[in-house]
Amino acid sequence: MAFKNYVLVCGGTACQSSKSEEIYKNFISELEAAGIKEDVQVVKTGCFGFCEKGPIVKVLPDESFYVEVKPTDAKEIVAEHLVKGRQVKRLLYQGEETKKHAKVEDIAFYQKQFRIVLRNCGVINPEDINEYIARDGYAALEKVLFQMTPDEVIQELKVSGLRGRGGAGFPTWLKWNFTKQVNDSPKYIVCNADEGDPGAYMDRSTLEGDPHSILEAMTIAGKTIGSNKGYIYIRAEYPLAIHRLEVAIKQARELGLLGKDILGSGFDFDIEIRLGAGAFVCGEETALLASIEGERGMPKPRPPFPAVKGLWKKPTVINNVETWANIPVIILRGGAWFANIGTEKSKGTKVFALTGKIRNSGLVEVPMGTTLREIIYDIGGGIINGKKFKAVQTGGPSGGVITADYLDTPIDYENLQKLGSIMGSGGMIVMDEDDCMVDIAKFYLGFTVDESCGKCAPCRVGGRQLLNYLDKISKGKATRDDLAKMKQIGAAMKRASLCGLGQTAPNPVLSTLTYFEKEYLAHVDDRTCPAGKCKDLITYSILPEKCIGCGLCARRCPVSCITGEKRQPHVIDQSACIKCGECYSVCKFGAVMRK
Amino acid sequence: MNAKTINIKVNGMPFFVHEGTTVLEAAKLVNVKIPTLCYHPDLPAWAACGICVVKVEGSPKMFRACSTPVEDGMSIITHDPEIVEVRRTVIELILSTHPNDCLQCLRNQNCELQRLAAEFGIREMPFEYNINRIPVDDSTTSLVLNPEKCVKCGRCVKVCQEMQNVWAIEFLGRGESTRIAPAGDVLLAESPCIKCGQCSAHCPVGAIYEKDETQKVWKALQDPTKHCVVQIAPAVRVALGEAFGLEPGTLVTNKAYAALRRLGFKGIFDTNFGADLTIMEEGSEFVERFVHGKGELPLITSCCPAWVDYLEKYYHDLIPLFSTAKSPQAMVGALSKTYYADKSGIDCKNIFMVSIMPCTAKKYEIVRSESMYSSGCQDIDVSITTRELSRMIKSAGIDFLSLPDEDADAPLGIYTGAGTIFGATGGVMEAALRTAYFLVTGQELKNVDLTDVRGIEGIKEARIRMAGKEVRVAVAHQMGNIEKVLDLVREAKAKGKELPWHFIEVMACRGGCIGGGGQPYGATDEIRKKRLAGIYKDDTLSKIRCSHQNPAIKQLYAEFLGKPLSHKSHELLHTKYTPRPLYTR
Questions:
Q1: How far apart are the C-alpha atoms of A113 and A362, rounded to whole Å?
Q2: Which residues of chain A have a CB within 8 Å of the CB of B50?
């Protein structure tokens, strides 16, 4: 190592919003003030994944893992750790059980992870192409350009068993091969970076932490199928990812890794970034292509498939970010190596954005076949506040819920589908006993109703009707007949919608109806919400015998509808109560009752 | 094309079809009807409604029949309980967003959604109504857009953009707020809309339709101070019968005259007379430009008001190429309030002129410029479409099919075969060449059937020799086909090259006026071809087939106008054009 120490500051969006940029700057100035800036290199990396504990700062070579670092902490870390060689104990991550300071490899959050896609995230400075190259970056491209034939590349992909990570799981080699075989030109390569599931940020983090892996993979695809032009379609709400892509493209062009005659091979390839306006439906490939062409983002019937008639009616390979990120590794380490990871039909790893009622929320990459239990309990550390696990939602608004009964199911495409959910792009939201399944279904369906493009009737009208029924249920106004109608509409949407958005939109409703029918019936028959979420079905009242009149609830009530004398039982004015539940959660004496 | 033949099954029945056939088309071949709503044979499948879903053996999915091509060995199931249930649910969902006012709707008994609901036996609405209340746009002279009734099939948008290349309307909003409106949410009258009405002719429901002006006509007919006269356009006579159950293309000219007389019109005129007159003026104009070099070439026809509007908006640099001759409708209008008024001794203020047109843009033409008031009054008071006339006949209790054949009134009702073919694409050109040949050479054309310019082909060309010179002509119809022709003209002019053509005929609607935006619903190429055949039948049945031989025209020039392009002709029968912005807001 050229430097005595390296300070890796997480530069992912989540840590940046917790002031990691300021931490980074403070390190630079503190090192200068301490006179050791020649000995220490500060690197702004991509996401470490352990977002729950961010901002994260890692010091090398001793692998000190500092968590929840504040900008003011930079001074202490410099003075103690970097000058005197003493770790700042109070900032080091402590294991949940061991209560001991842990190195990265000992942290439970990382132990079961296996990083292919995220291999460089949190390790390199994404804005320095040399760091990417130092970690075998662009070596796969070199291999493809000089040592492999296009057919060998496709063969390697076939052996690897890689399937599309955007949701449907279509074999990647087949897609490439179809496009390669079409006798038409020009051909196009497209990266779908229109990640939009609520709670999902896998692709964003990959682009922010390792943009060159995408550029390299797209160039490999260009060489393989005979294309000289690639587009990255990314939503404008991802400014940091866009910035890093722009920097990466510029640097790659400067080094001759993009543009004319790449590495002297005679092969030309360049990449353009196209910004999306954030319509969820533009993640659907035909709508995405329409949007790149400047049309309104509306799906079109397939066939023709993009492989035959894609962008500007020309053969197009379109893969999502995570799929692309796997490609260079497969080329370098071989398809067989990749195929060793995972299950029989689902190879490699999958990145999940683990969020919700989970202790260690963050970005995790696990081999296919890992069980939900391992992810939620071993990596995620279980449910917050010791509450009871109720369900986990996968696949975002296109997916469904999976209950405790199925926690030991190994995750792969087929298994999740069998359970009424889907792999999706990798959103994973954990729910506990306080979550109402009607409310959850309403949330997801509200999202798809908002995001429906409006083209096809089953999605446009069916979604709205379903949402209205859910609303009726949550207000205690629905009947069992309504539940039957919901199933009827859901079936029609699944069968008759044009694109994946509409076909999968009823999944959150149908899967909660399947697994939590009792909870629905409680809303319908008994007009109650067992989880206490549906405001129209609950009332908060204060039990006079338990209330000591401390006044905390009255002070916290946002609408000031709780009154009472000091040390006297308080009363809630039901006509003004908005049922936010604040009183219920702040009362230390169990005096607020929810019914 | 040498399409490969492949083997498929529909509901277990094996048969051969050409590769590239869609499931929908294939099923039709074996008389299996798959229900559709958004699909229209004029347009590439947009696959919006989801009603035409079918199953393919071996696949867990359902496919849209309209957009799925057949594959070798494919076994298609078009009807089973699950498919029918899905289709029915989709129809019920669409109905839940549709106002339940069929009895008051213009499309009552002529609505594709109503027909579907009937076919599926929908007797109750299982879902709650959820209707987007959006105001009606009746800003244009010709069309009314009622977004509340829109089923978002997208036909109008695709017609306007892809067939017509006008781009007046677009999808706005998304999800359940999706609606059809001009870009930027301006009014139709403020948009590039050319009023061709193809949107209305393709709309499956009552969401976009002609501005109904039958009440104005009824009122005038009942007004004792009004002397009501009427003219009927060439294309009406081959389509009006469809509204009364006749085959498309059936000639009902004389029954239409009889019906109009029974409605109370005092003078029954024919726009075909005006067409013959247009040929005299426009043909003479061509001779002036082509033989005498007075004015620019190519001469471009101007009898289609939607086309006039399009040129004024999109190609105003080409205005000098436009024939200044008014359309046949406008000529009959001007003459009815001058020539006819003089002859019959009625003040033009008391004459109420109604035109029956296959067209919605004609409603715009009658007020488009001050030259439409050449008689000193508004030359034409109301223009109604074929559809509106059929409704008037029905509501008057006239048993159309039993009417006797009657004749129009002379002289404004006398026409030749050349006049009648104005209703067909290529017809204006053919009629003009028949007369131009005579005007240039002084001799009659031996074979007046100029078949090169006939037919449904989008752009047609022909060459004809006149007095040692070759005349090159082009015919384009369906607005989207015009760009190619005009771009070549522009290019030749810009580069000072030889002009590709000397004379160009343009009609905005596919097939010409017989496929007009105001014609009975349901036009497809199959129907258009039948209507075209009807028009040419009228031509061949005519004793006189050249405009310059029309005795009534000769009499008109002798008694009233003098000669073609005379001062009086210019006053009454010619107009001017002006550049117009695409958007006025």
A1: 12
A2: 456-458, 496-498
Beta-sheet strands, E only, within B233-386: 267-270, 299-300, 351-357, 382-385
Helix or strand or coil: residue B402?
helix
Q: Where in chain B is the domain with CATH 3.10.20.740?
A: 5-79
User: Is B150 near chain A, with CB under 8 Å?
Assistant: no
* Residue B96 touches chain A, beta carbons under 8 Å: yes
Per CB-CB distance under 8 Å, the chain A contacts of B152 are 454-455, 457, 460
Which chain A residues are closer than 8 Å to B87 by Cβ? 496
Locate CATH 3.30.70.20 in chain B: 143-209
Instruction: Measure the CA–CA gap between A369 and A479, rounded to whole angstroms.
Output: 41
List CB contacts of A323: < 8 A, sequence separation 6 or more: A162, A164, A165, A166, A172
Between strands B469-477 and B459-466, the pairing is antiparallel
Query: Given CB atoms, is B174 within the 8 Å cutoff of chain A?
Result: yes
Structure tokens at A187: 């051909």
Query: Is B170's Cβ below 8 Å from some Cβ in A?
Result: yes
pLDDT digits (tens, 9 = 90+) for B354-404: 999 999 999 999 999 999 999 999 999 999 999 999 999 999 999 999 999
**Could you tell me the CA-to-CA distances from B127 to A463, A478, B148, B174, B281 in Å, in that order?**
12, 13, 18, 22, 61
Asked if B93's CB is within 8 angstroms of A458's CB, the reply is yes
Distance from CA of A354 to the nearest CA of B (A): 29
Its pTM surpasses 0.80: yes
> Hey, what CATH topology would domain B143-209 get?
Alpha-Beta Plaits (3.30.70)
Measured between CA atoms, the residue of chain B closest to residue A488 is B89
Structural domain B215-573, CATH architecture:
3-Layer(aba) Sandwich (3.40)
Which residues on A lie below 8 Å from B68 (Cβ)?
A: 301, 303
What pLDDT, on the 0 to 100 scale, is given for residue A199? 84
Distance from CA of A474 to the nearest CA of B (A): 17
> From the CA of B237, how many Å to the nearest CA of chain A?
38
User: In this prediction, what percent of chain A has a pLDDT beyond 90?
Assistant: 81
Which tokens is A439 given?
């409310």
pLDDT band at residue A135 using 50, 70 and 90 as cut-offs: very high
DSSP assigned state of B302: -
The 3-class secondary structure across B329-350, one letter per residue, is HHHHHHHHCCHHHHHHCCCHHH
Q: What is the pLDDT of residue B493?
A: 93
| Segment A88-103, tens digit of pLDDT | 888 988 876 556 666 7
Please list the active-site residues of B.
282, 285, 303, 323, 362, 365, 370, 513
Q: How many CB pairs under 8 A join A and B?
A: 113
Domains and CATH numbers, chain A: 5-107 (3.40.30.10), 129-339 (3.40.50.11540), 349-432 (3.10.20.600), 437-525 (1.20.1440.230), 539-594 (3.30.70.20)
Question: What digits encode the pLDDT tens for the residues A207-219?
Answer: 999 999 999 999 9
Rounded to the nearest angstrom, the minimum Cα separation between A455 and chain B is 6
- Measured between CA atoms, the residue of chain A closest to residue B90 is A458
Q: What is the pLDDT, as a whole number, of residue B264? A: 97
Q: Which of B19, B64, B66, B90 to mutate to test the interface with A (most CBs of A within 10 A)?
A: B90
- The beta-carbon neighbor of B176 closest among A298, A454, A488 is A454
Q: Which of B45, B53, B67 sits opposite A495 (nearest CB)?
A: B53
What dotted CATH number matches B5-79?
Answer: 3.10.20.740
Type of residue found at B336 = S
CA dihedral for B340, B343, B347, B351, sign (positive or negative) = negative
Mean pLDDT across chain A: 93
CATH 3.40.50.1780: which residues of chain B? 215-573
